[in-house]
Amino acid sequence: MTSQKPSSLRLHDSDNVRVALRPIAAGEILVPGLTAVSDIPMGHKVASAEIAEGVEIRKYGQVIGFAGQPIAAGEHVHTQNCTYRGDFERSHEPCAGATPTDFVPAEERAQFRGFRRPGGGVGTRNYIAVISTVNCSATVSRMIAGHFTPEKLADYPNVDGVTAFVHSTGCGMVMGGEGYRMFMRTLAGYATHPNFAGVLMVGLGCEMAQISLLMEAHGLSESAGFHRMVIQESGGTRKTVDEGIARIEAMLPAANAARRELVGAEHLSVALQCGGSDGYSGITANPSLGHAADLVVRHGGTAILAETPEIFGAEHLLTRRAEHPEVATKLLERIEWWQAYMERNGGSMDNNPSPGNKAGGLTTILEKSLGSSAKGGSSNLVGVYEYAEKVTTPGFVFMDSPGYDPASVTGQVASGANIVCFTTGRGSVFGYKPAPSLKLATNSALYARMSDDMDIDCGVVISEGVSTEEMGQRIFERFLAVASGEHSKSEALGFGDNEFLPWLVGAVT
């Protein structure tokens, strides 16, 4: 006789809510002594006991909100009765939970086939980039890249493509200000990314983001693989486009000569992301990705967590894992910056979750953050970086960014990520050239509905009882395959030409 699968799950002994694993009807017995008093959608929460007004609501063993009114046992717990409060007591205890990392010996590390670049970087793809320094050169940059159709690249099978990276800024910003520095770091990070065999940077000539200043500040110099062009100096649109095409044509033979070779997994740098999250995200896909991130770290690689507003309320779990006190201090400084930033812009840290997140069962930013931070696994936090700052320390690190996915991933790629892994419960369609992007479905219904977009079904953690450790191993192995050239679903669909989105901060004049 086959036992019936449970309809709900309690994630921690101290929790006073359960998570619905399927739609639950009012009157259904959840566990002996607990009956649903209202309909509970899949992924949403149900009170496992009476919760008095003002009492903490706990999930994952952590505070996710406070009862805004008395909540009966078996009642749906969501926005109608669970309220946000960001000032509750939590102990950050820097370094209290840091433990020695069990690194895999160098000779036993996993391997993938990557492109070795001068200077020591390793690429997982072999693109040529046309990077616009200002919106005024965006159309010209697209014209240059657009010339190189698949037919024109047929003689260069080892080149993944010629792609334009354009945006809406580059001028009207405060020279030397915080936003300007962020933007210039982002351009420099892309210009030196190991997934590019060649780069052509195109400016207008009178913008704030001068190519010459960028090169001077970030130690760049013209070479066979790095060219600069200025439209005003080149004689206008048509002459710049023609010359830009000629320069890329000159780069193609060397780019095509690049060959993949076996390298150690220490050359993996993985951007950890989530979007369109739901009530399953913190149960299936995110902890599974966390185990995969731990494997990357154990094999000498780098895992980059980001989205600062989406760790708020869970930052104490990260500061405990800080390898050094100054790492914890820097993370808390970024949290404080965000609180001030939101206040002066008339917002709240609880601006998230989005309507779609709430429909999927997430109620407060505290709940979303606790599930989101699970992507970071359990390794020590060895560094905290500013947006688009080059990551120089292997291991598990954090990069400051907004929660807006395109802006956040753009910063992670600029920091050096050569692969992106993105979990989603509601469904997301995207790609982030030049880094191949894997999408993980948090539930099997989403995987079936959007199978053309989803790479891995993490819903089997619930539906088939696969452990998050086993799923993490599967994800890690997919990292190696995709880093070696296997196409992800987003690459097969042609995504990645429109998601370059530098984070804009500061005054525009």
Outline:
This protein has 15 helices and 23 strands. The chain has 509 residues and is of the alpha/beta class.
Molecular shape: globular
Helix content: 25-40%
Average the pLDDT over all residues and give the rounded result.
96
Strand element count: 23
Largest sheet: 7 strands, parallel
Query: In terms of structural class, how would the helical and strand content be classed?
Result: alpha/beta
Low-confidence stretches: none
> How many H/I helices?
15
Overview of this structure, please?
29% of the residues lie in helices and 19% in strands. It is built from 15 helices and 23 strands. The protein has helices at residues 138-146, 178-191, 211-218, 231-234, 237-257, 285-298, 315-319, 325-344, 355-359, 365-372, 405-414, 444-449, 460-463, 468-483, 489-493, and strands at residues 8-9, 17-20, 29-31, 34-35, 45-47, 56-59, 62-67, 76-77, 82-83, 111-116, 122-123, 127-132, 161-165, 196-203, 226-230, 261-264, 269-274, 302-305, 381-385, 395-399, 419-424, 437-441, 456-457. A hairpin with a 7-residue loop joins β1 and β2. The chain is globular.
Which tags fit this structure?
509 residues; alpha/beta; 7-stranded parallel sheet; 4-stranded antiparallel sheet; 23 strands; 29% helix
List the helices and strands and how they pair.
Layout: E1 8-9, E2 17-20, E3 29-31, E4 34-35, E5 45-47, E6 56-59, E7 62-67, E8 76-77, E9 82-83, E10 111-116, E11 122-123, E12 127-132, H1 138-146, E13 161-165, H2 178-191, E14 196-203, H3 211-218, E15 226-230, H4 231-234, H5 237-257, E16 261-264, E17 269-274, H6 285-298, E18 302-305, H7 315-319, H8 325-344, H9 355-359, H10 365-372, E19 381-385, E20 395-399, H11 405-414, E21 419-424, E22 437-441, H12 444-449, E23 456-457, H13 460-463, H14 468-483, H15 489-493
Parallel strand pairs: 12-13, 12-14, 14-15, 17-18, 17-21, 18-20, 19-20, 21-22, 22-23
Antiparallel strand pairs: 1-2, 2-5, 3-4, 5-8, 6-7, 7-9, 10-11, 10-16
